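Two-component system response regulator structure dump, as promised
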Amino acid sequence: MKILLLEDDYEYQISVKEYLENLGYEIDEASDGIEACDKIAKNSYHLLILDIKVPEISGHEVMKYAKNLNLQAPIMIMTSLTNIEDISTGYELGCNEYLKKPFNLAELKFRVNELMRKYYSKDDKNIIKIAKNFDYDTNLKQIKNGQNIVNLSQKEINLIEFLLSRVGMFSSIDDIKYEIWEDKEIDDAGIRMHIKNIRNKTSDDFIISHRGMGYKINV
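structure tokens r here:
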């Protein structure tokens, strides 16, 4: 499993990186907020470990960026900042764990392992198999291709969930408009573009179409 570690203190970065690698994790490190955002945009991660007070842009801004990309991976804040405002901001932005510096490496191990267990332990009741090697986790609301998370927008996830709710049935563009966009204006071409984007991120037969009938998910 792959972890992004944002830490500008070199000694902390090296010690945490080496420790987690010895536990079997793959670690990708960043020393400033912009570097972290660039890596989040280009790669898939199972966990983000973010310091807050880092060069360029803060860990909080990195969290905002990740959430805007619809990142579904858990986020752990690892920082010496302890005032209630910083802690509150972190949780409001969607962090899942808060680790105060300095810490014992055994505590880091426990918290990382617990997040991985909580978010990635297999429970077949929550997994829907879709076209080829894709899985949809109804709890985490994410698509995986093997172990890789597919980055999808919230609208794309909503569209997939709607089609999954009608397994075996075709849904017309009007059905999709009504259920997903409700009263908001979108034309047929806009719907087709969202479906095309999902196919580009997954596979051509992830969503099946039939002229005059509409679309259905390939379960």
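The longest helix spans residues 105-120.
lmk if u need the other ones
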